[in-house]
Design goal:
Helix content: 40-55%
Strand content: 15-25%
Largest sheet: 6 strands, mixed
CATH topology of the largest domain: Butyryl-CoA Dehydrogenase, subunit A, domain 2
Number of helices: 13
Number of strands: 18
Strand order of the largest sheet: 2-1-10-11-7-6
């Protein structure tokens, strides 16, 4: 297995062609570029942790092909225990990096290809599976990072691949030769591609009988002739060149370093081709890959959420209001959402089944439930973190710079620093109150919805706009007209400033 440093050194040996903002980067130094190095550091953690005693059980296993000790990211799942350990591994690494470490897509692509090639061979009499096993041994022996390449650029999405004006909107076979195939097209949103060793290309959707040239699965080095990578813009990328301020996650990057990969008449030898025209199996490959990948989300997203929740709790403590009931309520809600994500991933792993190839596959329904939850819950977690960190409730530091939790802001100080006076607002229903809460935040009002009558005095004392369905005689009563209610609340909270 590679160490983290060996992984980085190996990247410098590639003759990869990467463009960033129109500039062709030097392949020997591109991993040092401020836009890219964070993503390299995050991926390097998957190598570093594999070399530790503490995480050996999660990060490594024995190859079912050779019996050798391998990095789990090159493994084919042999049991539900493997599926569970994968989820736990992903959460642990996310806790360490707070971001995407990019090896999951290739990991899932390999597992999907392993089982589907077996079933193609059983039905069609081909030898794709044996080819893939030999390729897998090569990946395991060299501890390679694989980028899974599924998403095509698609062009007009109302049209099938063969109906596009430009056939290169989907990757397709343009020539079959005695020694291999030639492919052309592009793959979009390729996470970790520029710091990977290999790419595993898959069809982006189930293909029909007249679309056999688009039913292709094969492996390529990322620096193969004819392959061009265009690195995408990332969050805070320009700020990373300006010093230490506003870099985001400076050490490990944000997102996963995505790029557009163009395949310009690229040759692939037959020993690296694992599907070529078997259109009836393309949908199965897509499904297997998608479910494997969706099973990950509760692992990696809960790990990142651990970081977000910890940061939110720390901000609250530093600001002096960490023990407030409404803050604890928000932190509890964040934990509830996070563990729901984690539970879905564990559940679909525990309910996994053995495929005809011997590899284990997750429960597709539960994997997709996890995906559905991810599209909602992580954003709610982030919103709550912003709520906790966005308002000054108590003075956190004294003049000597020491933390002081025993000195709440005076009403006058609250008016000064929050730019508002406290206000109790009655809404007829909770749904409207929550919508109004969000709208007030967008207007820079520090608002909070609660149905806990006992918490209202504390929240008002903290200088907040308190929204409630509780029938309070002295509350401002909403009309139900969002525009009118916001206008009236804004005027009321500015009074006396």
């Amino acid at each position: 297995m590679k160490t983290a440093q060996e992984y980085k050194d190996s990247l410098r040996q590639r003759n990869i062609k990467v463009y960033l903002k129109g500039e062709l980067l030097d392949p020997k130094t591109l991993i040092d570029h401020p836009f890219i190095r964070g993503h390299v550091n995050a991926a390097a953690m998957t190598y570093a942790l594999a070399g530790t005693k503490e995480y050996e059980n999660l990060m490594t296993t024995a190859s079912h092909l050779t019996g050798k000790k391998i990095n789990r990211f090159t493994h084919i799942h042999q049991s539900t225990d493997d599926l569970v350990k994968k989820v736990k591994m992903l959460r642990m690494i996310s806790q360490k990096t707070g971001t995407c470490y990019q090896r999951c897509v290739g990991f899932d692509a390999m597992n999907a290809t392993y089982s589907v090639t077996y079933e193609i061979d059983q039905a069609m009499g081909t030898n794709y599976h044996e080819r893939f096993k030999k390729y897998l041994e090569y990946v395991q022996d060299n501890d390679l990072m694989i980028s899974g390449a599924m998403t095509d650029v698609k062009g007009d999405r109302s049209l099938r691949p063969g109906q596009q004006k430009d056939p290169d909107m989907f990757v397709h076979v343009v020539e079959k030769r005695e020694d291999g195939i030639v492919i052309r097209g592009a793959k979009a949103h390729m996470t970790g591609m520029v710091n990977s060793h290999e790419m595993l290309i898959m069809p982006t959707m189930g293909m029909k009988e007249d679309e056999v040239e688009y039913a292709v699965c094969c492996a390529l080095p990322v620096d193969a002739p004819g392959v061009i990578h265009i690195f995408g813009r990332q969050t805070n990328d320009d700020r990373k060149c300006g010093g230490d301020v506003d870099q985001g996650n400076a050490r490990y990057g944000i997102v996963g370093g995505e790029c557009l990969t163009v395949l310009d008449n690229v040759f692939v030898p037959w020993d690296r081709v694992f599907m070529c025209g078997e259109a009836q199996f393309s949908g199965l490959l897509v499904e297997r890959f998608a479910c494997y990948h969706r099973a990950n989300y509760g692992g990696c997203k809960s790990g990142v959420s651990d970081v977000v929740i910890g940061a939110a709790a720390l901000m609250a403590d530093y600001s002096g209001y960490g023990k407030a009931g409404h803050i604890k309520e928000k932190l509890n809600e964040m934990i509830h959402k996070e563990e729901t994500l984690y539970a879905c991933s564990l559940a679909c792993s525990c309910e996994g089944k053995c495929t005809p190839s011997g590899a284990y596959f997750v429960d597709p329904l539960l994997a997709n439930v996890g995906k559905h939850n991810v599209t909602q819950l992580i954003y709610e977690i982030d919103r709550l973190a912003q709520d906790i960190g966005g308002g000054i409730i108590k003075e956190s530091l004294g003049g000597d710079g020491k933390k002081r939790n025993d000195n709440p802001l005076t009403p006058g100080e609250r008016r000064r620093y929050l730019g508002q006076v406290p206000l109790l607002v009655h809404c007829d229903d909770a749904a409207y109150a929550k919508i109004l809460e969000r709208a007030l935040f967008e207007e820079d009002r520090i608002a909070y919805f609660t149905e806990n009558e006992q918490a209202i005095p504390t929240l008002l004392d903290a200088g907040l706009v308190v929204l409630t369905t509780t029938d309070c005689a002295d509350a401002h009563r909403c009309t139900g007209s969002m525009e009118d209610d916001i206008t009236e609340i804004l005027l009321a909270t500015k009074a006396g400033l």
